[in-house]
Amino acid sequence: MNAAVLPDRDAIIIALDQIADPKTGQGLASAGLVRGLTVGEGRAGFMLEVAAADAALYAPVRDAAERALLAVAGVRKAQVVLTAAAKAPTPGVTRVRKGAQLAPDPRADTHGMPPAERLEHVRRVIAVASGKGGVGKSTVAVNLACAFVALGLKTGLLDADVYGPSAPKMLGIDEQPKFEDGKLSPLRVWGLKVMSIGFLVDEASPMIWRGPMASSAMRQMIQDVRWGTAEDPLDVLIVDLPPGTGDIHLTLVQKLAVDGVVIVSTPQEIALIDARRASAMFRKMNPPVPILGVIENMAFFPDPATGAPIPIFGQGGARSEAERLGVPFLGEIPIDIALRKGADEGRPLVATMPDSAVGRVFAAIATSLHGPRP
Ligand SMILES: Nc1ncnc2c1ncn2[C@@H]1O[C@H](COP(=O)(O)OP(=O)(O)OP(=O)(O)O)[C@@H](O)[C@H]1O
Ligand SMILES: [Mg+2]
């Protein structure tokens, strides 16, 4: 086998054009439904972007398209991501040939985008962000969500980190959400409703697919998940963002009305600089997203003998950063082995040991974000 030979793009487009678009009767490529076509060694995939109301109608089309791709010489793995999105072609879309379109650069979408929509039946959306990776954002998001549950609030967690979804592992989930009546039902665990982009994007997919697919998958997360009903709305949804200030953040804030963002940082200077960048990005959004406060994670290591704080990463950095930003300092979470172990084992500490020192810190943060228990 010659590994360097890629599947032929023209053959792929011709194959896809044999499948009829149920709306227009045209072939899929001619109808402009083949977006973000990616062809790599042994694989091919694209995004099938349709109006939200048509998602169910196009599910068999997606399956047929995957079969058609697999029938093309050299394609061993096919992935067609069905996403429910805007009906009109998105600004920035580049037409390449015969109606096939490349995925738009999400940054180009900032202009002329409709205003952010409120999630149906969700009272409040709080995003957890950081500039730097690995500062404990997911650990904080998961445990903060559990702390809201303990306050008696109906709480959801949306894991939006396409580059490294953590909710399934941190919450010990190994099932897939169900698609019912055209909507995805979140999974229920630890009193939470949980949806992870990890359920939609194959973790084994090469990185190169993830960038362009991420924004579309994110839109599906926003539009197609049934978080609650008119009679039984969600009180709060925590959104765990990927690190950085990239496309996902833009898509999220352009599409989804976020009521506020919590910034997580370690006390280190480098993490603080990134936290500053992240908060500047949220403030520059149109409309600006309020910064609800800063949480300092891995704030210190408690001396095993005395419990006295040993400031491994420096001291007080996030607190003074919060002051500089003019936002509340929400609390400091120490380096804690049980917290780390709980995350690794899918048993969040706040749910299993709410009265531990760390459990109480999260409870205090949840209370200050929400107000005292009614
Ligand atoms: N306070 C803490 N004490 C001990 N371990 C922690 C603490 N916070 C986070 N960790 C551990 O640090 C690692 C990174 O945490 P986590 O995955 O929450 O970071 P993240 O900011 O979400 O990372 P990414 O940027 O990759 O999304 C995990 O192994 C987690 O268990
Ligand atoms: Mg994370």
Q: How would you explain this protein's 3D organization?
A:
Helices cover 33% and strands 21% of the residues. It is built from eleven helices and 17 strands. Strands 10-11-7-12-6-13-14-17 form an eight-stranded mixed β-sheet, with helices on both faces. Strand 10 (187-189) and strand 11 form a beta hairpin. It starts with 8 loop residues before the first helix and ends with a helix. Mean pLDDT is 82; it is low at 86-112. It binds adenosine-5'-triphosphate (ATP) and magnesium ion. Adenosine-5'-triphosphate (ATP) is lined by residues 130, 133-139, 161, 164, 166, 243, 297-298, 333, 335-336, 339-340, 343.
Separate helix tally:
11
The description of the largest β-sheet is: 8 strands, mixed
Cofactors, ions, other ligands: adenosine-5'-triphosphate, magnesium ion
Average pLDDT score: 82
CATH architecture of the largest domain: 3-Layer(aba) Sandwich
Number of strands: 17
Unreliable runs, pLDDT <50, ≥5 residues?
Answer: 86-112
Structural class: alpha/beta
Record the strand order, biggest sheet: 10-11-7-12-6-13-14-17
Please give the radius of gyration in angstroms: 22 Å
What percentage of residues falls in helices of 4 or more residues?
A: 25-40%
CATH superfamily descriptor of the largest domain: P-loop containing nucleotide triphosphate hydrolases
Distance between the termini: 67 Å
Strand content: 15-25%
In N-to-C order, the SSE pattern is HEEHEEEEHEHEEEEHEHEHEEEHEHHH
At CATH level 3, the topology of the largest domain is Rossmann fold
Please tell me the total number of domains: 2
CATH class of the largest domain: Alpha Beta
Bulk shape: elongated
